[in-house]
């Protein structure tokens, strides 16, 4: 069957949206998803956002998230922004949405300038909630990677993240160290890996090796994880500009049980039909 899609990007992160609220077809298997993710055999994507009907009265839709390797994950900040922009473009009278996600309810607001802000939930630092193997929660952990000991922070933003500080993101060994930390035994469900350089209290540079994808132009939950980790270490203010290879997002968090807000662009690239 042929079904429509929209290909979008959030800060350069390639997002494919398939709206199945009306037809409710099953999600393709992992092999088919990998073919669709490749630009040689499909439209290409970093993450696929699969929309289905919500099962409550307050949410507009439910979404599932699939990585380019066919694996299903809990959350995608850039993908949520694209979904919100897609819904707002379809209904000009509604610019704020509640969405159901595998990580819980998400609030998204589309601003008049086209920027989209998303409440990404409260960060989780308890090892069992990440999940991460440790005796107790701490601001940093020493991780043995090959012959090195690397200092990381570990946090869940609905999905697991390891964050390490680097002197310069351009020379960071993302492709070497990223996969090793992604599959490290202390992350039983694997993890995303952020390489963060703190420029000052309001600005960081970030590259992210995403679980099941590799390095991408941007990672919304990775930006949130980096900022809250830096805040916990006393390095960053409540609102921080995060410069990623694909552009800039803003992350704000006042601490405690408040949600982390992620704000950035969401742009249409093209649209077409999938053969499923």
Give a concise summary.
With 276 residues, the chain is α+β, with helices and mostly antiparallel strands.
Second rung of CATH, namely the architecture of the largest domain? Roll
> Mind summarizing the main beta sheet?
18 strands, mixed
Quaternary structure type: single chain
> From N to C, what is the helix and strand string?
EEHEEEHEEEEEEHEEEHEEEE
- The percentage helix is 10-25%
Our estimate of the beta-strand percent is: 35-45%
Q: What is the domain tally?
A: 2
CATH class descriptor name of the largest domain: Alpha Beta
How far apart, in Å, are the first and last alpha carbons? 5 Å
| Bulk shape | globular
Count of β-strands: 18
Structural class: alpha+beta
Mean pLDDT: 96
Low-confidence stretches: none
The helix count comes to 4
| The named CATH superfamily of the largest domain | Diaminopimelate Epimerase, Chain A, domain 1
- Output the CATH topology of the largest domain: Diaminopimelate Epimerase, Chain A, domain 1
Radius of gyration from the alpha-carbon trace, in angstroms: 18 Å
How would you describe this protein?
This protein has helices at 30-37, 77-90, 174-182, 220-232; strands spanning 2-10, 13-19, 47-52, 61-67, 72-73, 96-101, 104-110, 116-119, 141-145, 148-156, 160-165, 192-200, 203-210, 214-216, 239-244, 247-252, 261-264, 267-275. Helix content is 16%, strand content 41%. It has an 18-stranded mixed beta sheet that branches. Helix 3 links the parallel strand 11 and strand 12. The protein has 2 domains: 2-121 and 265-275, Diaminopimelate Epimerase, Chain A, domain 1, CATH 3.10.310.10; 127-257, Diaminopimelate Epimerase, Chain A, domain 1 (Roll), CATH 3.10.310.10. The chain is of the alpha+beta class and 276 residues long. The chain is built from 4 helices and 18 strands.
